Amino acid sequence: KSGYRLGPGYMIFSLIGFMFLDYSKSVYRYIPYILTIFFIAWLYLLGNRGPTLSCIIFLFFIQLWPLISRNKVLFRSTYWSIVLSIVIFIIGYIYVILANPDLANTINSFGESITSRGIFSRFFVWGNVILYIIDYPVFGYGIDTSSSYFYPKGYNDSLLRDSISSHSLFLELLFRLGAVGFTLFLAIFYEIWKTFWIARHNRNIRIIGSYFLASLFFSSLGQFWLFTNNLQSAFAWALLGIGLGISYKTNRGYTY
After folding, report:
1. Most-buried pick from 127, 131, 153, 175 (CB within 10 A)?
2. Do 195 and 256 touch, CB atoms closer than 8 A?
């Protein structure tokens, strides 16, 4: 659990969706679940908290899919509900530390007892990133300007390195592209999500859609989908491509 071992977590989460594709209603359909539980346990032992939680959320959404896909309004609102919950989580995360340090220390100690690492270390990173975002909130610093190029501005502790890095796609988008780019990203992903409604009863869409939702949570804790290792993001984009292909092939004339 010592040090940073994010590589296995990113790679496993990038590939995990492929394990579930095209398994029929036979005894073999349980194999992906067994392997996923094994990977979750392994990632937990490595201290990969974000990937561990995201894999659990992925399994949760697979089971929740029949409810999510019951009607179009609920299906579409699920996406925005998750985005809103992530925004509230990030804001609440920082607010708890600033407003109630004693409560934050209690929660942090509880986190250390479970994972041997505190859960509020990202505050010092996110706090600095937000201070920079405030300076250029509309268009950001530019697509090629990473937050890792900048030094701590206001919040610092022994866990923070010489430079900051957002460790969150949501914050990195706001940093680089501002509110305009962040809104455009959410709109594009929403259009992708809407297409899954067309083939919502297809089992592979159930897997890919659940992975898509889980990836939103993962993106809030790391720079997933964009600004990360090209090979890792390529697998995820390929999975989305498969989902879009299935949706359009299901009914090419469907208006979503």
Report:
1. 175
2. yes
d(CA 65, CA 118): 33
Distance (Å, whole) CA 154 – CA 128: 6
User: pTM value?
Assistant: 0.86
Long-range contacts at 128-134 (CB < 8 A, ≥ 24 apart): 128/152, 128/153, 128/154, 128/155, 128/156, 128/160, 128/164, 129/164, 129/166, 129/168, 129/171, 129/172, 129/175, 130/94, 130/171, 131/155, 132/164, 132/175, 133/171, 133/174, 133/175, 133/178
Query: Cα(93)–Cα(153) distance, rounded to whole angstroms?
Result: 19
User: Tens of pLDDT along 33-89?
Assistant: 999 999 999 988 887 888 899 999 999 999 999 999 999 999 999 999 999 999 888
Written as one string, the DSSP assignment of 101-120 is: HHHHHHHHHHHHHHHSS-S-
State the Cα–Cα distance between residues 118 and 116, nearest whole angstrom.
7
Distances (CA, A) of 203 to 15, 57, 73, 177, 207: 17, 18, 21, 36, 7
**What's the confidence (pLDDT) of residue 165?**
77
